Structures are given as structure tokens and as C-alpha cells.
Amino acid sequence: MSSSAGGLSRRRVPGGGSSTSSNSPTHSPRPSSPSSSSRNGVSGGGSSSNHNGVASHNHTHIGGGGGLNGTRHAGSAFEGGSKIAYDPRDLEDANEEMKAGGKMPRLTLMEEVLLLGLKDKQGYLSFWNDNISYALRGCILIELALRRRIALVKDPNRKRLPIPERLVEVLDDRQTGETILDETLKMMKAQEGDKMSVNMWIDLLSGETWNVMKIGYQLKQVRERLAKGLVDKGVLRTEKRNFLLFDMATHPVADVRTKESIITRLVTLLTSTTSSIPPNALDKEGVQCRVLRAICLVCTAYTASVMDNAFGRLGYEEREAAFQRCDEILAEFCVYPFGGGSASSSTPGRRRLAGAAGGSGGGGGVGAGVRIAMGGDGGGRESVLGLLNEVRKESVGSGGSGGGGGEEDLGFELVAGVLEVLSKLDSLI
User: Fold this and answer.
1) Is 17 contained in some domain?
2) Could you name the domain of life of the organism this protein comes from (predicted)?
3) Mean pLDDT, to the nearest integer, of 332-349?
4) Distances 122 to 222, 236, 240 between C-alpha atoms, Å
5) What SS3 class is residue 287?
6) How many structural domains does the chain have?
7) Are 268 and 378 in contact (CB under 8 A)?
8) DSSP readout, 124-148?
């Protein structure tokens, strides 16, 4: 079956009519070789080789059983390449957002409170603020509860105890991506065998305990670590500042718009007089539990005594009315179910009185504190009721209280417990 001309031979491939040919008219045929038809490790019918020794796979048999017939090129443009590479963590993030009811905000609650307390140009907190360290530990528990990582233990007998004395459990120990949250979650998971209450966890994370066996639960350098996290996010920058005998790292504000947006949200929420919440009083659309997050920001910033920076643009009357609204909101959301408080209760009055006596630049003194705490005009009652309705919708929409005491319901209950602890902060420190 082979023909020869001038001592050269040309053999036909057994599978079909393709033969060794050249793409150039000046190409001279080569001597036959046993491996000439499989130079590139490809054998079988329907394949031909050009003069560069590259096999061209122009298959004429698709359904037969050849060597290349069953080859699948996953993730490529060849035949059978229908698979696409992906990162499984992307699907986990999507599932987490779906379960949480929305995407996570850019800044955590702790970072927003710290940012409110920082002086813009100096880059450090007030040396006379003793509340913020304790309040930041409460913010950590609130953030973990909103992210569906922790909640109160589902025990019918828990209602016999005050909310701060109810036990906390870990629902999901996956990492959140925030270092301080992950460290706290790891400690709480390790303590699952001996569950502790909301109040006890805040004390341990703050180092406020006489038990030497529990001193290891204290979170170290929370403010500095949060500030460095804000530097990584481009909100702050790091500078060295000389304080007489020593140098200290300070973190002035680099992204003024971010802090201004937080202040705008606070001021808009606290000066609104209608039952409908203004859109610019909340975070971006699609953020998980954005109404409850706005309320928690108001309450934690108020108890951390960092509101003076936010109210700098307000006049005296507006400033005092905003502080009164903080009292009303804290009174309604430090109990559970939400809305069971009273604007004239002793707890918020004590908060406002202490804030007026010890706050920097408050203006008005103790007399103003008593007047605001006890003599509210009720003009903002409608806006507080609007907040209550929206938070109830968020709970029902996430399958919480509408589902008969589910995880979301217990998470909201934990938030109320933390806010009750923080509402008594001045009597604790």
C-alpha cells in the first residue's frame, strides 16, 4: 500500500485518507519513519502532521472510540470545556449575606464609635473619657449578634432573669474577617462548656473582674487595633506626635467624607420629627439590619460619651433636643421586646444627668440635665415609634420574632441586654 519514487516512500495512515503533506510548495518529503505520524505523542486515525511536526486535530470521527475521543478539557475553550473555575468562598459570602438579610457594612459598629470620638486633626481620643473602652466591648457583642454569630440561649426559664444576666451561646464560629470579632468569637466558643451571661462577657472583655482565672479573657489594645484597622481601610492615617517626654502614634482622619457621613446619619436621625425615617439617616440600601444598626450606633455613641463631636454643628436648643432623643431611644431599646420602656424612666435620666455633669463642652450643667431628662416635650415621640416599627419589620423579615423566637429573635434580645448594661455605665465605672 505504499508507493516509492526515487528511493523515497510514502505510507498511508491506517485510519483514513489523510497523509503527510507540506504547506509549502518547496517542501521536500522526508524518509518514512515509524514515529512520523505520532511525532507529538498523538496516534490514531484522522490526524495529520505538517512540516513543523505539529499535529492538527481535525477529527472526522466524533462518535467513535479513538485516543482523543474521550478527552475532556475542563475549564478551557476546547471541546467539553464547560467547567468554570470559581472560589468557594464567594458562594459562602453570598450564602452568609442571604442568611443575614443583607450585606455587611464597610465599617463595624466599634469602628464608627471610635471614629466619632477621635479628634480630626490631633488623631487621639479625649484623655478624660473613661466610658469608651467599656462601650467598645459592648459594641463587639452587638456586632457579633447582628452578624448571626452569637445569641442568647434558647431557654424558656431565661425570662426569670434580667436580660443582662441571661446566658450567651455561639451559633456560628466561622471567621468574620475582622480580627477583634474573630478573637472574641474564638474565646466564646472555647467557653461553650461553661456559658456566661451578657454582663459577665462585657466585664471579662474589659478586664473588669476580680477572678484571676478569667483575666486572660481581656481584650488588649482594642482602641489602637481598631484605629489600625481604620488605617488599613483608608479612613485614618498614622502620625507620630510628641507629648513632652515620649512619642505617641496618633491617627488623624484621612477620609473626612466617611466621618461626615456618620455624623450626618446621627444628626438626621436625632433631629427628625416624623414617623418615617429619612433615607440619609440610614446606611446604604441593602445593608443588613440597617435600622437597628443606626439605633445601636446612637445608643453606643451616647453611652460612650462621644456625641459632643457629632453635635458641634447644632445650636444649643437643637443640641439639647438631640440629647433628649438619645434618652428616649435608649429607653425603648434597652428592654425586650423593644418598645417596653418609658422616656421618663430613671435609667436614661441618670445617663443624661451624668453626661451633662461630666461631658466636655456640654453647656447647661446639671440643671440642664435634669430638665432634659424629666421634662421632655414629646415632639420626637413619633420618630421613635417609627424606629420601633421598622425594627420589628427587620426582625420579622429575618425570620425572628415572626418565627416564634428563632435565632434572630434571640440575637435582638442580646442587643437589648447589651444596651441595658451600657445604659448603667456611669454607675459601673
Assistant:
1) no
2) Eukaryota
3) 70
4) 19, 11, 10
5) strand
6) 1
7) no
8) S--TT--SHHHHHHHHHHHHHHHTT
- The amino acid sitting at 422 is L
For residue 55, being part of any structural domain is answered with no
Q: Angle, to 10 degrees, between the axis of helix 179-190 and the axis of helix 132-146?
A: 80
Tell me the three cell numbers of residue 117: 470620638
Please state, for a pLDDT cut of 70, what percent of the chain lies above it: 64
Distance of CA 239 to the CA centre of its chain: 27
For residues 319, 308, 289 and 150, what is the CA-based torsion angle, rounded to 10 degrees? Answer: -140
Instruction: State the average pLDDT over residues 342-363.
Output: 43
What is the CATH number for 214?
Answer: 1.10.3630.10
Q: Alpha-carbon distance 147 to 139, whole Å?
A: 12
Query: Is residue 28 in a domain?
Result: no
Residue 329 predicted with pLDDT over 80: yes
**Residue 118 lies in domain:** 106-422
C-alpha separations of 356 from 304, 324, 331, 351, 375 in Å: 13, 11, 17, 9, 15
Q: How far apart are the C-alpha atoms of 167 and 198, rounded to whole Å?
A: 6
CA distances in angstroms from 147 to 150, 151, 165, listed in the order given: 8, 10, 22
N-to-C CA span, the chain: 103
